[in-house]
Amino acid sequence: MAVNKSKVSAGFIVVGVLTVFFGTGLVFVGPIIIDDQVVKNTVIDPKNDLSYTMWKDLPVPFFMSVYFFHVLNPQEILKGEKPMVEQRGPYVYRKQCRKENITFHPNSTVSYREYRRYFFEPSMSVGNESDVVTIPNMLVLGAAVMLEDLPYAVRLLISTTFKTFNEGPFLTKTVGELMWGFDSKLVDFLNKYLPGMLPSTGKFGLFAEFNNSNTGLFTIHTGRDDIRKAHKVDSWNGLTELSYWRTPQCNMINGTAGQLWPPFMTKESTLPFYSPDACRSLELVYQRAGEMKGIPLYRYVAPKTMFANGTDYAPNEGFCPCRQSGLLNVSSCRHNSPVFISHPHFFNADPVLLDYVLGLNPTEEEHGLFIDIHPLTGVPLNVSIRLQLNLYMKRVSGITETGKISEVVMPMLWFEENGYIDGPVLTTFHTNLVILPAVMEYMQYIFIALGLVTTVVAILVYHKVKRKTCEGGTLPRENTSTSAGEQTPLLVKKH
User: How far apart are the first and last CA of the chain?
Assistant: First the structure.
């Protein structure tokens, strides 16, 4: 049976056109399918193992690296000379987080408390927790500033109390004691006779209230009713606004809890989050695009206005009383102690702060904070939050422990909390959110190209067949020829 080439060509033309239409359809439908999968994997839903586990258990290793500013000249500082410090560390701790008391609500929100624990990692540290460092004594120098407005006689009594309990202006302790607490007769005395004056009722340590603690009761949006609200804070400890600061804007609780963000971010998007440790909402801004192991990302950094004072940046007036730009006064949420937060080594701060302390050398690479976000999903790929703890200290008459200390914002330590996606989590993330969308994108163009090639070739073949038919003077017809074996008997048959 002869093959009708013109009809076969026509069939291939139809197939080619349909393939082009299918590929073109994928161009429009593909992104919708991908977006639908992103939404499905972003909503906080126990039925979705991947996204729920990532939110609940944070299967990414997180570490806190602590650097102390060891005071080299404590006696000279008491005589009014500039402090000279030497950075010690890092002392690295593995951070373990777990969410408990998870409760879903009918209004598409979920409440939880996140508990955190820290475990020392000697192999990642430069030194041990037994290392000895010298830093300002917050109990003495902090209290002196807090009590400077009391009558002179009371200040003399306070100074006598310090001497009674053998508390001096500087502490020389091990890293472990400074981090997690040490026994102090003065602390025991204050907790007994002035309860509530100190943040901790046990040992006194700079991170004593961090370990084995929770960050408060967060209620956040699941994104089920509106994906644009996913992970955004609805309330914290039952509050929708704070009371630490002087203006409604500064008291707002904005953004997420600082772990995940809503999907579909653009370069115009910002990265707002509420930090209980900083007692305020913070906001990072887009810096540049990049990629991590083949995964596209946006890098967000702290703007220079984050810790600017009210004079340099009017919206921050509510965080005052302020000092130089680059310092956040957190005394209002830290029992009125004269404590300031800044970027490490006073990075992005008023240069005058560097003139008051010797031994600091700020650089963006080592001291700037950043978060690398996968913009399509709002999932952080690489995080590095760096902050410095400072104590405002000066001479206070009547409290002889302060000597002739010059007025200074004294760096005590800085820490970095960092983590990045790696291992099986990275592989799963890369497969589901990079490879599969890329395959779908390539497939749509392959279908279009294949359809176009098929259509063009089929059209050429069809026209070639038509031309040959016309040149032969006949049109092809079905069943017009028979074999010689069938014709011969008819010609020779006799009756």
Answer: 33
Structure tokens at 264: 């579909």
- Do 12 and 456 meet the contact criterion of CB atoms below 8 Å apart? no
User: What are the Cα distances from residue 10, in Å, to 314, 343, 462, 465?
Assistant: 73, 71, 7, 11
pLDDT attached to residue 23: 66
- Looking at residue 253, its amino acid is I
The predicted pLDDT at position 30 comes to 64
Residues 254 and 284: their CA atoms lie apart, in Å, by 12
What pLDDT does residue 475 have? 47
- Whole-angstrom Cα distance, residue 455 to residue 11? 10
Residue type (1 letter), 243: S
Q: Give the amino acid at 458.
A: A
Asked if residues 414 and 344 have their Cβ atoms less than 8 Å apart, the reply is yes
Which contiguous run of DSSP H or E holds residue 392?
strand 379-393
Whole-number Cα distances in Å, 42 to 45, 198, 340, 360, 373: 8, 41, 36, 42, 14
Backbone angles phi and psi of 317, in degrees to 5:
-55, -30
Find out whether 307 and 275 touch, Cβ atoms under 8 Å: no
Opening angle at CA 131, ends 126 and 136, nearest 5: 110
pTM, full prediction:
0.84
Give exposure, 438-462, as e/b (b: 16+ Cβ within 10 Å).
eeeeeebeebbebbeebbeebeebb
Q: What is the largest CA-CA distance in the chain?
A: 152
Give the bridge partners for 336, in sequence order: none
Q: Are 5 and 464 spatial neighbours (Cβ–Cβ below 8 Å)?
A: no
* Tokens matching residue 65: 């690296």
Band of residue 486 on the pLDDT scale cut at 50, 70, 90: very low
Mean pLDDT of all residues in the chain? 86
Question: Rounded to the nearest 5 degrees, what angle is found at the Cα of 181, between the Cα atoms of 83 and 358?
Answer: 10
CB 67 within 8 A of CB 90: yes
- Tell me, what amino acid is at 173? K
Residue 32, pLDDT above cutoff 90:
no
Rounded CA gap, 411 and 414, in Å? 8
Question: Could you tell me which residue, 61 or 359, shows the higher pLDDT?
Answer: 359
The two beta strands, 109-120 and 213-221, are antiparallel
Residue with more model confidence, 361 or 493: 361
Q: What is the pLDDT of residue 481?
A: 46
List, in sequence order, every residue forming a beta bridge with 98; answer none if it has no partner.
115
